[in-house]
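Input chain follows. Return structure tokens only.
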Amino acid sequence: MLLGLHIKNVALIEEEEIEFGKGFNVLSGETGAGKSMIIDAINFVLGERTSKDFVRRGQAKAQVEAEFEIKDRDTLSAIQEIGIEADDNIVIIQRIMTAEGKSTNRVNGTSVTAGMLKQISEGLIDVHGQHEHQSLLNAARHMDILDKFCGEKIEQYKADLGVLIKEYKSILLQINALAGDDEERSKKIEALEFKINDIEDASLKKGEEEALLERKGYLNNIEKITKYTHNAMELLYLGADEEMSASDKIAQAIDDVGNLKVIDPDCSKIYDELNEVGTALDDVIRKFKKYSDEIFSSPEELDNIEERLDIIYRLKKKYGATVEEVLAFQERLQEELNFISNSEEELKKLSLRKADIFSKIKVDCKKMTDLRIKTAQQLEQEIETQLKELEMKNASFKIVVKQKDTFNSKGCDNVEFMISANLGEELKPLAKIASGGEMSRVMLAMKTVVAHAEPIDTFIFDEIDTGVSGKTAVRVGEKMATIGKKRQILCITHLPQIAAMADRHFLIEKSVKGEKTVTEVKALDYNGAVGEISRLMGGGQAGNLVTKAAEEMKKYADEYKSSIKVK
């Protein structure tokens, strides 16, 4: 429920604080006084786009703040899911727009995006104005409206159907891939076999490229390797220029220290350690000599490596960034080749799966159709009842649900609302209704019915009483008062019969203060409400008789509201 609205620097409004009440709230005033500004402010704070003209002339920014009390658990959960706490079920939305057109949004002090704000506001208020008639006239929207009455069950059917359709489309793609003519299939097999053979002929191995590059680097440095190996071998083992090798020198040193330890036993430890050095050096020399003996290279080997690397680079350029990716691609090609080669058998399997899924889709669609037809019958009766109470006593309302040959995520139905407004007239699409008053009553009848199922607490009716007068206006007022027993209603009206039913009445007035035009909102007491009803009845020429009639109208309204039984 909308508890209050704070508006600052919006169009002609300087600053207004409006406290709405439960039940039926009416806003009235002279034409052009600014009643629609209140609705515009509500739409703005709920996330709707607006123009720069929304900001009062000469001001840097416009600000609207709305306070809601929320009882619906799903709406509260949706708010909490985006990280906003709602203490005592209170939600305060604040939206500011600068003169440059930039806006900021806050919910309970937390900044939110425009998308988040729209998500939150969807469960707060249902705004209905004259423009909404167009959506009701659009037959493409009728299924969505009917599905709202079908509840959660239809949404579950849609979810189940969505899974089946996704699988069905996947099967169709696979069938299309196989169902080409023999020539097309033969060409595809030939292309796959060429690629597979191209990779297979190379006999690639994981890690091969790295090993080849390492060997290539070795061969490119073979001269240096040979030179350094020969020099080291001469110094360690062979000797050079009549010089003793390191091995010979250490062996001689071991002999000399051995003789020394005979004379001086203190050298025994040194002799042992030097002997270990000699033994270790001999081991190193044996390993190094083996390494030296194995040094081998030939121009042919380097050419072979280059040729092999060229093959690898070519395949990588065509089939993958690495050898591993090329091999993985080969596996996928082979799977596809096997799939197409066995296409006849695979087509049989896919056709059976397709038929099975299609059968399940038909069952799901039938469930949706049956639910829609059942719901439509109940809805027809309820709307006809409401239309009769709105002085369309001979109206006949029909919801036509027809199955199509095709299906989509919503099933296989076409839904259209039909109406016969007068006795003896055939049923026609809503778009054929000429009377704005009849269209207003159809919409009000539907809103009355939906009020029993919708979780939304607040309905706004923006001058939907077009084309309505006299006794019909009384019935429209009664209907809104009845809805007001379960939901909060905000209604802009020019009709005294509707205004009289208000539980809380606000007067919208425009005046000139100094050199500025301002719009102000005033909550009316009983006498003020009677005075405004008199004005609506007398067109500004309210005399005693009109005032008396207004009092009688208000008295009747109060008695009627007292008699309403809430189910």
